[in-house]
Every structure is written in structure tokens, then in C-alpha cells.
Amino acid sequence: MERAAVTARTSPESARDIPEATVARLPVYLRALTTLSEQGIGTCSSEELAVAAGVNSAKLRKDLSYLGSYGTRGVGYDVDYLRYQIAREIGVTQDWPVVIVGIGNLGQALANYSGFRSRGFRVVALLDADPARRDEVVAGLEVGPFDDLERIVREHSVAIGVIATPALAAQDVADRMVACGITSILNFAPIVLNVPDQVDVRKVDLSIELQILAYHEQRKGATA
Amino acid sequence: MERAAVTARTSPESARDIPEATVARLPVYLRALTTLSEQGIGTCSSEELAVAAGVNSAKLRKDLSYLGSYGTRGVGYDVDYLRYQIAREIGVTQDWPVVIVGIGNLGQALANYSGFRSRGFRVVALLDADPARRDEVVAGLEVGPFDDLERIVREHSVAIGVIATPALAAQDVADRMVACGITSILNFAPIVLNVPDQVDVRKVDLSIELQILAYHEQRKGATA
DNA sequence: CTCGGTTTGTTCTCGCGTTCACAAACTCCT
DNA sequence: AGGAGTTTGTGAACGCGAGAACAAACCGAG
Questions:
Q1: What tens digit of pLDDT does each residue of B187-199 get?
Q2: What are phi and psi of B52, to 5 degrees?
Q3: Most A-contacting residue of B207, B219, B220, B223 (CB-CB within 10 A), to test interface
Q4: Distance in angstroms (rounded) separating the CA atoms of residues A200 and A218
Q5: Are B28 and A192 in contact (CB under 8 A)?
């Protein structure tokens, strides 16, 4: 498979601009490939992978083409090879340290979520401002005071923070995270965070998702 | 999510085709308006509301224009009036009954999430296939057997189901939900669900969100 | 009543993302 | 070796959403 090296352009590798929409789908492909691999499937066509990932095959091929030419015409894709290439592109071949702030119901659920560890993320600390939660052990980690944030980030070179606090505390937590040098935030609090441009924020909002479903549900009822 | 143009004609109001991107932002505006209202603010301009919602004001005005003309030129929007109009459009002026299946860490967190009740959703049942979880009381509700699904859906006219099970069980749960008449599913399991076209599915995937952050994080490091 | 200042609703343009369709490239069979 | 059958990678067309810009509409002062 030295062919890949031939098609490489000016930059050594992986420095092309990948569209945001494609980036959002790469993890889906990665998961589908992992499933296929676990089923002992060594090769798959773009059509098979597209079905497994829930997209259309043309889109899949175009997405993969941004990474390079990792398939073989007339044959398809080598499952493990493609899986590695996507993982490398996303950056989950090594582990990313993650800190979770706010260890309520949701924070505990996140801490216990096995999908993180198996997908390139390692929870290095659980922090909570509430002294009542201090020293509880969740998922094998002691819950520490929020003020430990700076030390944790420094010692573990944490770049990614997860906010699972109530809405009122979220902005303060975000500010502190940014001050400590965290540059990517996953926010579960139902509030719009204000952060500098160079910091990436992704929001997961449960009630918004339900409201979107409710809108469509309402329209279904109207036509019936 | 392709929403077919079902009834594009003949409707008094609020039946216009609202773009999917706009629908996804309406709940954000709704939340921002609620916050403003709680602060005692009676009127706001598109610029103020846009800042509170984290979008640009031209986009906000365009979004609102799909609903109708609810503002006053030279003045702005009446906060409570606009809030009601958006709530009505989304369909959260009445309560939607919701059933949650899979009462592990995440399911419990969801059951306890107060944002549901306050935003037009009412959790009517918690179900789990595991007998060990049976009869536990979570958020004031007894955890019932998964086989109760059909009865619950019928008795409460449930249209929206939440799946918080492990990946392996999720497709079976979805199939059963569809068979019972549920037409909107919020899926937290890391798997692509296969459902009929008329059923809406929204996916919340924690590790995918983190992987997207990791991709950008990796690129930041590469340039620095 | 009129005029200046303000803010909405809408039109227009541009860029991104999706999809189609097909040439290029590979395998297998004869 | 050559041709038939597959499947990838990509150029081109198309549609949707974002943002800029402006006319229409409203308020208040004089």
C-alpha cells in the first residue's frame, strides 16, 4: 500500500483542509469499521460501509477522499487499514486526557461511560465545587475540589474539559478552564458559553434535542 | 433527517415549511427568552436576543421571519409574546409524555434532569430489561419491566421514547418502540438505529463529540 | 404633522455540502 | 493476454443555509 505515499501532496500528511461536515462523520465511520472488524470482516465496499454508518455511499467516498486514496478500485477498503487511517486523522491513536467538572448525576454517568476509554480518551480527574461531594469515589477516581483544576491541567497536559455542572456555574467553570489553558470544551450545561475564539466548544443539550423531536411530532399529528 | 413536504399548502398559520437549521435553533431562542423574562426584561432587540443566543442578528431575524411577523420595527420584540409564539410553534405549550428505557447511570441522570419537566416534557415511565434494577425508585418513579412498554405507550399516548441502553440492546428496543407506535426516538446508544422512514431519530453520542474536539485539538498542536 | 433615529423583515449573493454520473483502475475468468 | 464485471475517486450540477445590505415601518420630539 505504498500508493498512499505517492498521492501525498506538498505537506507530509493529514494537513489538508477537511470540511467540518466530514469531520463530524469520521467518528461514525470509525465506529462502523470497528464493528465490522470485530465481526471478522477484512474488506468492505463503500456501499457496505455506508449502510453500516447510515449514510449514502457517494457521500462516504467523498468524505474518505479528503483523507487520501485508501481504497482499491474493484475491491473496496481494507477494514483495519482504513480504521487506522481514520483514527490517525482524528487523532485518537494516542490517549487524550480529559477532566470532568460537575459530578452530579450526569457527571457520574460520564465518568462511568466505558466508551471514552475505549475510544482514545482517559478521564484523569473528577472535580466538583460542592464540598459534600468531595472524596466520593466515582469510577475509581476520587472527586476533588474544583480548585485543583489548574494543577491537574498542568500535570496531565489536559486540553479537553467536560462541563456537567448546573447552568449557573457553567460560565465560571469555562472561564477557569480557559485560564488554565484548556482549549476544547464539551458542554452539557443548558447555556451558551462565552469563550475566546481559539477555544472550541461543543454543546450537548438534552432538552433541545427533545424539543426538535417535539416539533416534528407536532407536525405529524397535524397531518394525521 | 429528510422531512418530506407533506402539507405545503392550506394552513391557517404556523404550517409553513421551516428549514431544519432554523428548527434546531428555535429551542435556543426559547431558552434565551426565558432567561430574559426571568430578569424582568419585557422587550428586546434582535441584536440583544442574538447575543444571548450566541448567533448573529441577521440569522436570528431570518429565523423568526419563518414564524411570522412578531416584532415591531423601531422597537424590537416583546419577550413574553415571542416566547409564547416560539413555544407554540415547537409544540411545547402542552406536555409531551416521554418514556426512558435503560436505567443505568445515564438513564438515571436523564430521569433526574429537571430541564425536561420545565420545558414541556413529562417522564411517565422508566423501564429496564434487567430484573436486578426492577422496583428501584429513581426520580420518584419505580423502574418497571421493559415488557410494560406497550401498556405504558397506550395508556399515556407516548410518542417520544428515549434509549439509554447499551449498544447491543438499542436496536431491539427501537424495534419494540416502533411496534408500539412511538414515532420519535432520542438515542444515546452508540449505534446507528434502523427505523422506518416516518420515525424520527436524533442521536446524542458522547464519544463522537469528544472525537470531533480531538481532531481540532490535534490540528492546533500541529500548527503551534 | 413632520422629521430624524431606530429596528424589523426581506432580498440578494456567496459558499458549503450533497448528490449524480462517469472515467480510471483493479480482479477474475477464459 | 484480453475482456467483462466491479468499485473507487472525482468533476460538475444543484440546493440549502449564512451573512450583508437595504427598504419598510414604527416611535418620539418639536
A1: 999 999 999 999 9
A2: -65, -30
A3: B207
A4: 34
A5: yes
**pTM (predicted TM-score):** 0.92
> Is A116 in contact with B222 (Cβ distance < 8 A)?
no
A202 and B209 within 8 Å at the Cβ level: the answer is yes
For nucleotide C5, the protein residue with its alpha carbon nearest to C1' is B74
**What's the number of CA atoms in the CB half-sphere (13 Å) around residue B196?**
10
Neighbour-count burial of A102, counting CB atoms closer than 10 A to its CB (0-12 exposed, 13-18 middle, 19+ buried): buried
Name the residue among A119, A209, A212 with its Cβ closest to that of B211.
A119
Rounded Cα distance, A58 and A47, in Å: 8
DSSP characters over B102-138: --SHHHHHHHH-HHHHTTTEEEEEEEES-GGGTT-EE
pLDDT digits over A181-223, tens only?
A: 999 999 999 999 999 999 999 999 999 999 999 999 999 887 5
Q: Who's near B66: CB < 8 A, 6+ residues apart?
A: B16, B18, B19, B22
Task: Report d(CA A104, CA A130) in Å as an integer.
Answer: 10
Say yes or no: A113 contacts chain B, CB-CB below 8 A. Answer: yes
* Tens of each residue's pLDDT in chain B, 224 residues: 433 333 333 334 445 689 999 999 999 999 999 999 999 999 999 999 999 999 999 999 999 999 999 999 999 999 999 999 999 999 999 999 999 999 999 999 999 998 898 999 999 999 999 999 999 999 999 999 999 999 999 999 999 999 999 999 999 999 999 999 999 999 999 999 999 999 999 999 999 999 999 999 999 887 55
What's the pLDDT at B1? 40
Nearest-CA residue of chain B relative to A201?
B213
Residue showing cell 491541567: A153
3-state helix, strand, coil in chain B (%, to 5): 45, 20, 35
What is the DSSP annotation of A174-209? HHHHHHHT--EEEE-SSS-----TTSEEEE--HHHH
Q: What are the residues facing A44 on neighbouring strands?
A: A77
- Provide the CB-side half-sphere exposure for B2 (13 A, CA): 4
